[in-house]
Amino acid sequence: MSSEALFIAAGGTGGGIYPALSVVEALRARAPQLALYFIGSKAGIENALVPRQGWAGFHSVQSGALHGVGRLKQLGSSLKIAMGTWQAWRLASRYRPRALFLTGGWATFPTALGCWLRGVPILVYVPDIEPALGVRVISRFARLVLTPVPESAAYFRRGVRVEAVGYPLRRALLSADRLTAQARFQLDPERQTLLVFGGSLGARSLNNALSAILPELLADGLQVLHISGQADWEAVQARRAALDSAAQARYHAFAYLHDEMGLALAAADLVVCRAGASVLGELTHFALPSILVPYPHAWRYQKVNADWLVARGAALRLDDAHLMSHLLPTVRALLSDPGRLEAMRQAARRAAVPNAAQRIAERLLELAKLTQSLERISGE
Predict the structure, then answer these.
(1) Which CATH number do you get for residue 228?
(2) What is the pTM of this model?
């Protein structure tokens, strides 16, 4: 047990996990002596994305979704959440954390409830502009809710303390530069680069649309960076193998990029992607014009994210239903108009909020009442 322990809880998708990892990096830089414990869900993607090293402890608790599922699934999820709450309560009793920092929705709900019952102060970071239902429920237990943009405050009930801080980015993204990226991916600096990706889980409709227009894009002289996701990787490999050698040299496909995602962004002139939470931080940091394709089979979170960037002139929104017919002419129109691309770059740059991870880390240390003790240590 440590008197300077903090709990970190994240899960669901990369959109919830990567902001948490960014804040952890900032915490470790600010206060390396802290004992950080990660708590995830039993079967979540966090088990694959979160590195095991560097934690004082790595734990998982039962969890389940209550919204958007059938009655039988809700019953099973309720039982899992009850078990997960008890497991989190036991962990909080054992390690006595000074605070809990969490992102994500139902995947982190049992941890939030168990820590709240144990009297642990809670800080929530909401990656998307519109919070999910699970996050809005958790906010009732939180001392402070941090958001990427000021507009998020309208989604919370009166009395919830909300502060806009930007979107936190990992050091691997912040340190990426264009020259290194072009060398890593063997790109021609004289050619324009189109980056296409679908988020941490991939996006089949994006993969299919790109496959359909790939010969035309390559014939236009473009070079394409494509991150497909694991599910479609075999089909993407087969598509690349069917190209001639000259075209293959300008089509760079990957199932997934983790630490090198920043390099892919740094290399791009235009991005086509989903509109998950990361676009609010990553595309703006790299000042990237984008065509955003919100995921159509969920609530409107991605549409809200996309529309926020569109309203600022940094992006275009293309709905999934129109991908096959509209993607090629939209890409061509943008890449053939340098003035418009530059205006979108400037708009994206203006929307960026630097140092969000450090800002969140400081708020967490303040909530945990550790700031003064850390200042004493640094002054010795």
Answers:
(1) 3.40.50.2000
(2) 0.91
